[in-house]
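>> received
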Amino acid sequence: METVIGMTAIAVALLIGMGALGVGIGMGLLGGKFLEGAARQPELAPMLQTKMFIVVALLDAVAMIGVGIALYFAFANPFIGQLATAAGAH
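>> returned
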């Protein structure tokens, strides 16, 4: 039982940490490409900025979904119920 709880805690930490790392890298690349495009064609900067904000919102949504799944595993761990069911069957 303790092993399942411990491994779930590690999985939650990895889920949040790797999700944040991926979103951070993605936003950095996106911001850099936006600045390159705005410097190359300044008249398109407002349109590029609008599209950049839409993509940033989608990137943040991916991170928030990961946090939601991690919180589900942390507080309503479904694996403990399966473990109890499997232990009761033997």
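>> The chain is about 90% helix and 0% strand.
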